[in-house]
Amino acid sequence: MKNHVIFLLLILFFAACTPASDTPEVPYSAQKTAIGNEAAVVTAHPLATRAGLEILQKGGNAVDAAIAVQFALAVVYPRAGNLGGGGFMVLRQPD
Question: CA nearest 40: which of 11, 69, 6?
Answer without folding.
Answer: 69
